[in-house]
Known about the structure:
The chain is an alpha/beta fold. It has a single domain (about 15-225), classed as 3-Layer(aba) Sandwich (Rossmann fold). It is about 50% helix and about 10% strand. It has 7 helices and 5 strands, in the order H-H-E-H-E-H-H-E-H-E-E-H. Helix 3 runs parallel beside helix 7 (about 200-225) and helix 5 (about 135-140) runs parallel beside helix 6. The protein is globular.
Amino acid sequence: MSDAMESLYPFLYSDTSDLAAVLDQVRASTVAKVAEIGELRREVAARDGARIAECAAQAAARFRAGGRLFAFGNGGSATDAQQLVTLFLNPGGEAPRGEAPGWAAPALPAFGLANDTSVVTALCNDVGVEVVFARQLAAFGGRNDIAVGLSTSGNSANLLRAFDEAARRGMLTIGLAGYDGGTMAELDSIDYLFVVPSSSVHRIQEAQTTIYQVLWQLTAEEVSHVPRHTR
């Protein structure tokens, strides 16, 4: 663990007491990380940009048919799922950059499946953590709905069960994963899988943030039938 931490933050393990030298190391480390995530985002955009737009069109069709979005993940990915839900529920009143003045993204129904601690802890304690999302989708999910699962490894058993349950119910299924996609890449139950090709959890989650932000904006535009000026 200490070796891993030292590779991420070498300035914390430096023997020097020279403040200027430490600040130079901090600056260099920050610049390197910014360059790394920038390159990773460009790679994802080049490879998956068209698929993200296609996925957004499919999601918009579900919303127009009365569907809802259910997002889920574990740990930091649960936090990202909450942020995704917030984007759809409370997008704010100003038009995104590049959009027509006066246009406001519509509020769309979305739910975070890790948010209700009573439900989550009851399922974990009484049944098992592997069903914590699948059971909720079984109770609430319908064929016009959307299931979005986020993971860094792509191997979370409770996400795999949730995607299978969502697919059985005819839901549109969207997965975000890192590394090589893990077990999520082997599932037939995920309609759209977006993989961030990195072994750094930090960079994976940063790139996933960009993916779901773009997915939200494109979906909101499709729902509102707003043409993008940049298309």
